[in-house]
Amino acid sequence: MTAFVDVHSHVVPSGDDGARSIEAGLGLCLEAARHGTRVLYATPHVWPSLTLTPEREEAVRVAHAEMAPALAEHGLDLRLGWELTPTERLLDEEPGRYRLGDLPAVLMEVPFHGSLGLAERLAEHVAGSGLTPIVAHPERAEHVREGLDAVAAFRERGWLIQINATSLLGAHGLELAPDADRWREEIHAFASGVDWPVEDKGLTVSFHYRQAEDEDAALEYLDEVAGQARRAGLIARFGRKVLEIRPPVHADKGTAVKQLLDEAGLRRALYAGDDSTDADGFRALDGLDVGFRVAVSSDEAPSELIRLADVVVASPAELLTLLARL
Questions:
Q1: What distance separates the 2 farthest-apart alpha carbons in the chain?
Q2: In this structure, are residues 121 and 109 in contact, taking their beta carbons and an 8 Å threshold?
Q3: Residue 120, pLDDT above cutoff 50
Q4: What residue ranges define each of the domains in the chain, with the CATH number in brackets?
Q5: Angle between helices 22-34 and 54-72 (to 10 degrees)
Q6: Alpha carbon 255 to chain centroid distance?
Q7: Using CA atoms, how far apart are residues 295 and 305, in angstroms rounded to an integer?
Q8: Beta strand pairing status for 132-136 and 160-162?
Q9: pTM higher than 0.90, yes or no?
Q10: Is the pLDDT assigned to residue 231 strictly greater than 70?
Q11: Cα–Cα distance between 17 and 49 in angstroms, integer?
Q12: How far, in Å, CA of 34 to CA of 38, rounded?
């Protein structure tokens, strides 16, 4: 079966800005599995301010060992690696300590601001040990946004590049909306006051309750959170076992799809989705010469999505089979 391998995630609690608990991490992993991920590498940050001490490494490995068997029952292979922030100290360490599981590779990021010199030296150090550097989300670096020459040079040296999916289309198209960014701090401030694990997507935040011990109580609490968000002038919308908080601007998957189609001059498109927000994407295909809408069904699939679809498939794997036949 065709499967998706994700080499960069923060789903194992480690003291960084990722999952805060095993329960929250399991919820994120199950969401990934539901969308077709079969191998997921947990990559806790190794920051200058949060180094990999023996005590921290042991705690992370214990958490991973607890999570992995439970996720295997759902068809997800959770593996362990690390994500390095370049420092001088790392140049004196053996890169193999930070290897991505059994892959001959090390995940590292580049600084968001300033020179890429230290990052390049760390990548050379990794490559010199016989491992391949995987450069994480370079598109977020100021130096790279000014021009892609640095990334092209990385690729010429055989180093791999990992780009965040939201960097391509944004968070439901919000990055394409000029008024959205000014709400970023307000949304984060709101989320910090919610006593619930949060998934930070930049311009939106999500609160999952799929793994809640008492789903009714969780939904009751998140209903209150949704009301608070609306009173604060934000948009609150429930999806598949999740509450999403977003800025009050007119932007969704549909507006993003329309803009992409217009910019490329395309009159034919296929859109596939499995959540209530994908209905906006479906509607964006109205008026095209050919618009093909595929719904990925499940017990939680919104009825509206199924109604709008031209074709319904039973799983992400079935969707991949369909695409391979086109």
A1: 60
A2: no
A3: yes
A4: 4-168 (3.20.20.140), 174-246 (3.30.70), 253-325 (3.40.50.1000)
A5: 50
A6: 21
A7: 6
A8: parallel
A9: no
A10: yes
A11: 12
A12: 9
- The first and second tokens of residue 128, run together, are 């010199």
Helix (H, G, I), strand (E, B) or coil at 80: strand
Q: How many CB atoms lie within 10 A of CB 287?
A: 9
CA-based torsion, 21, 25, 28, 30: positive or negative: negative
Two structure tokens written together for 312: 């319904």
**How far is residue 202's CA from residue 320's CA, in Å, rounded to a whole number?**
28
Residues 157-198: pLDDT tens digits?
999 999 876 666 566 677 777 788 889 899 999 999 999 988
The residue assigned the tokens 């990385």 is 154
Q: Which two tokens stand for residue 83?
A: 């994500």
> Tokens 């017990």 correspond to what residue?
299
What letter would DSSP give residue 97?
Answer: G
Bridge partners, 160 (sequence order): 134
Which helix (H) or strand (E) is 25 found in, with range? helix 22-34
If you write DSSP's letter for every residue of 147-214 in order, what string do you get?
-SHHHHHHHHTT-EEE--HHHHHTTTTGGG-TTSGGGHHHHHHHHHTSSS--EE-SS-EEEE-TT-SS
Enumerate the β-bridge partners of residue 17: none
Residue 320 has pLDDT above 80, yes or no: no
What does the alpha-carbon distance between residue 197 and residue 216 come to, in Å, rounded to a whole number? Answer: 17
d(CA 74, CA 72): 5
Query: Could you tell me how many residues make up the chain?
Result: 326
Work out the number of other CB atoms within 10 angstroms of the CB of residue 294: 20
Instruction: Report the DSSP pairing between strands 242-246 and 235-239.
Output: antiparallel
pLDDT single digits (tens) 2-49: 568 999 999 999 998 788 899 989 988 998 898 789 999 999 999 998
